[in-house]
Give the backbone structure.
Amino acid sequence: MPKEYIPILLFLLVAISVPVLGLLAGKVIRPGGFFFRASRNPAKLTPYECGVDTEGNARDRYGVRFYIISILFVVFDVETVFLFPWAIIYNKLALFGLIEMLIFLGFLIIGYIYVWQKGALEWV
Amino acid sequence: MSLEISYWAVIPEIVLSLAGIVIMLLAPIVEPESRGRLGYLAFIGTVLAGAATAPLWNKSMVAFNGMITVDNYGTFLRLIFILIAALSILLSVHFNRREEINHGEYFALILFATAGMSLMAAGTDLIIIFLGLEILSIATYVLAGFKRSDVKSNESSLKYFLLGSFSTAFLLYGIAFAYGATGSTNLQNIRQALGAATQGTRLLGPQTNTLLLLSLALLIAGFGFKVATVPFHIWTPDVYEGAPTPVTTFMAVGPKAAGFAAFLRLLLTAMPAYHWYWAGILWILAALTMTLGNVVALVQPNLKRMLAYSSIAHAGYILIGMAAGRELNASPILFYILAYTLMSVGAFAVVLTVSGKGDLRVNLDDYAGLGFQQPVLSFALSLCLLSLAGIPLTAGFMGKFYLFTTAVQAGYVGLVIIAALNSVVSVFYYVRPVIYMFMRESTSPAPEISVPVPVIITLIITTIGTLWLGIFPAGFIQLAKESLLALK
Amino acid sequence: MLHVMGIPILNLVCYVPLAGFFIILLLDRKSVTAIKWTANLVALLDFILSIPLILSFNNPSYTDPLTNFRYIIKVPWITSLGAQYYFGIDGISLLLIMLTTLLGFIAVLSSWTAIEHRVKEYYALLLLLQTGMLGTFMALDFFLFYVFWEIMLVPMYFLIGVWGSERRLYSAIKFFLYTLAGSVLMLLGILALYFDYGRQTGVYTFNVIELQRIGFPFGLQYWVFLAFFVGFAIKVPMFPFHTWLPDAHTDAPTAGSVILAGVLLKMGTYGFVRFGLPLLPDASRYFIGIGGKSFPWMMWLCIIGIIYGALVALMQKDWKRLVAYSSVSHLGFCMLGIFAATPVAVQGGVLQMINHGLSTGALFLLVGNVYERRHTRLISEYGGLSHIMPLYATIFLIMTLSSIGMPGLNGFIGEFMILQGTFSDPTLRIWSGVAVVGIVLGAAYMLWLFQRTMFGEVTNPKNELLDDLNFREAFCYVPLIILSFWIGLYPQTFLRYLDDPVNRVVSKVRGSDYFKLSIPVADATTSPTVAPGTVVADRPAPHR
């Protein structure tokens, strides 16, 4: 067994232990667990929504635009992921780097224009 | 700082993508009724891409740190892919008008998919091959579901997407293991890392890299899905049947050819040392694939489905070439891919035209008596089917003949005998539509079938190509050989 | 090389029908008369063009001295595979080509009124078929041979399937699949020879002459012979593979049956003479049982074919089916002669191929004549036709007698030579004796057929008003009758073309010693290469 795989093994153990320990801890300290007596009421059975009362059913339909907006968000998020390392070695890449990045941004803008033209950004 | 950037190396992809982008941007602006005309723009795009690719012939360069290689192998295949795209676009123009699919994006997606295929043919790094595959796959997932109101089309798209992503995972896993085993994703580096150490016929020896065997198995499964070999073929008939017919045409030849292109390059460039292992697996896959494809095709009353199973069978024939493929032995594959492209597109073109609005006439019964009502269509279909069956003077015969001789030469006599028996079986179902067309009287009144110009152009290209490859194959065999020299 | 109008003669003969095919495709489908005339003229032209082949056959300037083939055309085709475009003929192919062009013309002529719908496609396919058949007989390159062999299937398949009678679909597909299955196996055999030749010499070629130069190991010959056997025997057809033939013959249109019986079946026998025996002499000897050291498989199959075919023919109620089964029997004779591999027997076998083409072709035409009038082929529907159609009955009698081997007509010469040649090999003598039974049975079923249809009273009132043959119909039989008598009375005209090629085949199978060891024959002018029992009387010596 190669030695260099030991860290991976350790990492795997840690990864497994995090959810196991978390669930165990919950089991131990929650009401009805090892230490506390169970207290049942309707509020305990509702999903946690920032302390506000739940509205309607979670299986409702809602606008497909949410997806589009979130995907667009991810696209521009990824753009930033590219921009940071590029900025760090900007001086080394010089003009070539600038042009390449402009091309990359250009593609994103084309996609943006397309989405705009298709009317995906209009809310109503 | 050497990045080895050469835009010439990716000129086909650049042209195809730009054409795609232009169409994509124009699509929302143009009136819905005239969006179908964007197809002609897409066609011009493919012509330009072809013109840009042709000068790469006999050029060889390595670009992007060995990620892209321009060689005759890649150029030959890129040109085939562009041909496939051009023919599919021509068919789509007619089909989309008939089915009222008014989306310009359709053509953009075909171009993007072609760019992906082209990248797969030129990529000499597993990452690039994977990227090409993804570009291709995502575009085709969408294309398969383009008839949005049609349940079958939706089913097709969803099935293709689910099984396709599944296979992609296999492929990626295989790539990861290959990287783990050799420390590189570059095909040349992998080859050097493997060396000739494991040349031999032992199943597992001290020098055999077990991790690489695992990778090989996963890669074969991943590519097996893409080119639809048994037992990874289950998605094929449903997907082909449900997708819009021009998309089926495209899928039956394009992604398949691209899958074989990348697969062959991978095996021959990176893993010749493990030939003993992959040849054995491919032997079994080839035998299973062609037998199952042919036997199941025998009982299909739906022509689209029959052609889907026939495409499985033909993938089996190509696998023979891969199993036998060492050095020049694989050159029949290139010839066969070209031949298969021409005859298959030709057959689909007729099926598409005959099926009529709503794709209603796709069963054998609908072809009864067609022979003398539509002589041109029936002649083209008969020729393509006979070529698929492997009757001499057609491309299909030359392809099979060249494939079989080379395989016999490489010592795969058993496989060739199985293949020969298979082609006899296949004759039965290829000839059946011909019987229906010419020897049965139609029960219903003759349907109105319009044969528009784009379809005629496609038929002319495919029939002449099929005959030309069948009668004067020497030049193309030479091309295929020269192309394969690059893979050594 | 003989050129006509700047085109090599063989190309011209082979492709004139193809040109006719394209011309007919360009004609309007409604101008039926123009289509018929074009087809007839093209077929006639092809026959006329093939006459110079026989006239200048012995002209040394057209002969390749090395191979003794004539009118050679040799052009590289697929160089990377070693396939050439290689045409050339010898005496055997010459006779078959003449037969093809003649029967091709007769078949076209005989269809004038028989075909009423889809006339254009019919004639086009008939001409295409002609090109395929001619190419098969001319090709000296295995690959080219295979291409023509297969190509010919397609038009024949359509002819049966579109213009045939009741069970045409079934018959067409059966014909197609049978032949195709056989030819795929044959292709594997060809490939095996191709690769073994390449292994031995380093050169890969499909050139048949080249392939004959070296000997193949017996193990390979064994398997290749079996592969060739299946391919050719299906076409002939020999006994276990004959079942497609009655169906295909019965359901084909008249012209299709004529071509099928007259020419297509000969491709199988031709394949054995040209390829099977000379390329695989050791395996041939083994399977035929020459020398008495191995089981005579081939002889058994020939004899079963002869007797079984005759017996089944006796039982037929359908006129055309009877003639079809008689083909199985007659082709058994051809194969017996060819497999006996003595000079006389092989010559007889080849001559019998021609004879069968003439007489059975004519018999199918005759069935076609009455079928066109009555639309039934049941023998019981007819009777006493000689009172109503005397000319028809006369021709039918001549052809019946020719078919059963009446001396003075062609069938006798062929059968006699086969039996005599087979008898001259001591180990095969017994088969000659058994085969005679086939001749007796042949006489039985043919004469019985004649009696049931032609003689007696006219029992069926539908037959009373039948017209006798018109001029066009009768004209079809003129060349056939002339040739039947010619071969029957003076076969030398034809046999002299067969000497040299047949001797070459025999010396391949039996070794060139066979000729040297032979007992000298009295005639002083005879060259030393004449085998025992060769009819030498007035025949010019080979290798003149």
Q: What stands out?
A: Residues 520-544 of chain C have pLDDT under 50 and may be disordered. The beta strands of chain C are 3-4, 7-8, 70-78, 83-89. The first helix of chain C runs from residue 9 to 26.
